[in-house]
Amino acid sequence: MRPVNTPHPETWLKVTPSGLFCEPGGFFIDPTRAVDRAVISHGHSDHARPGHAHVLATRETLAIMTARMGEGRAGTAQQALRCGETLEINGVRLWLRPAGHVLGSAQVCMEWRGSRAVVSGDYKRQADPTAAGFEVEPCDLFVTEATFALPVFRHPPPETEIARLLRSVALFPERTHVVGCYSLGKCQRLIAMLRQAGWDRPIHLHGAHQALCRTYEELGVRLGTLRAATVARKEDLKGAIVLAPPGAVADRWARRLAEPVVAVASGWMRVRQRAKQSGVELPLVISDHADWDELLATCTEVQAPEVWVTHGREDALIHALGLRGIKGRALHLVGLGEEEDEVEVVTEDPAA
Ligand SMILES: [Zn+2]
C-alpha cells in the first residue's frame, strides 16, 4: 500500500484524448494519435500507431512496428528498452516487464515519488512459446484491459484445442484445414504450438501472414518450414494446415482449397453462436487475452488498491473487483480493442 505522503497516481498519470499521459515524464503510453514521446506496450495496431517522434519499446516491438509501418513511420527516433532495465525520465523511474500477449509485449511500469503505476497493455497468463510469460509487478495502480471480462469467457488449455485440430486433420486427410487467426501473435503462436505437438510438416500461409512470420524468425522464434498457400496446388494442400486471416477463411479465397474445414482460433469461439454465424466448422478457443479468471487473479496478485480498466467489458470486472475491496475505474479509452481478437471474425479486414 502506498505510504500516506506519496502522491495518488491520478495526480501524475493523466487520462487525455490521446490516451494515458505520464505528466512529469512527458510521455504517453500507447497513444491513439501521433505524439512527441510514446512508450508502446506491443505491436498491435490499436496500441502502436504510426507517426510518433520518439518511440520507446522492447527491441521486438520496435522491429514489429517497423515491419508493419515501414522505416520512419514507426518513430523518427526509436529507443529499445530491455525488460528489467530501468530508465529515469524527469524523475520518473520507467521499466518494462513481460505481458505474455505477443512477442515483445510488455507492461509499462512507472514510479514517481514513491507512487507506482503499471499499465499492462494487453496480456494473458497462459503459456505461449512465442512470448515471454507475464510477470506480476506489485503496484499502487494497475491499468488493465477487459476484452474477455465476463464469467462466460474461460479459455481452455490451448494444448487441448491444438489436439482437437490435429485430430480433425487425422480424421479428414483429404481435406484442407484452414485456420483463421490474427496475423500478429496468434498466427505464430499456433505454428509454434503445432510444432510442440509434433506437427513437423510444412505449414501453409495466406499472403497476409508471411511478413510477420519472417519478422518473428529474424527475432529468433523458430517456426519450421512455412510455404505460401497461394502458389501451392490444390492437390498438395490435401491434409495440409493453412493459416489465414479470419476474414479470409469463409470467403472465396478459402473455396479454392480442397474441401476446406474452416476453423478459427479466437477467444470469441467460446460463443458457439458466433462461431456458427461465421460459418466456422471447427471453433478453437485460443486467445492471447486474459480470460475472466486470469483478469481477476492478476488484479488481485498485483495488490493494487485501485484498478483502471482501459477498454472491454469493464462493468462486470469493476463489480467483481469491488467485491474484493479493489476500487475500479472505467477509462473508456477510445481506439483500443480495434484489432485482433477483439474484432468480430466476420468483419475483420484480411489485409490488416
Ligand atoms: Zn494486443
Set out the fold topology.
Blueprint: E1 13-16, E2 19-22, E3 27-29, E4 37-39, E5 54-57, H1 59-69, E6 77-80, E7 86-89, E8 92-98, E9 106-112, E10 115-119, E11 141-146, H2 158-171, E12 177-180, H3 186-196, E13 203-205, H4 210-218, E14 226-228, E15 241-244, H5 246-249, H6 252-255, E16 261-265, H7 272-277, E17 282-284, H8 292-301, E18 306-312, H9 314-323, E19 327-330
Parallel strand pairs: 3-4, 4-5, 5-6, 10-11, 11-18, 12-15, 12-16, 13-14, 13-15, 16-17, 18-19
Antiparallel strand pairs: 1-2, 2-3, 7-8, 8-9, 9-10
Bound molecules: zinc ion (ZN).
Zinc ion (ZN) binds at residues 42, 44, 47, 101, 122, 340.
Mean pLDDT, to the nearest integer, reads 92
Largest sheet: 7 strands, mixed
Q: What are the bound molecules?
A: zinc ion
State the separation between the terminal residues, measured CA to CA: 43 Å
- Count of individual helical segments: 9
- Name given to the CATH architecture of the largest domain: 4-Layer Sandwich
What is the H-and-E element order?
EEEEEHEEEEEEHEHEHEEHHEHEHEHE
Helix amount: 10-25%
Q: Which structural class do the helices and strands define? A: alpha/beta
Query: How many beta-strand runs?
Result: 19
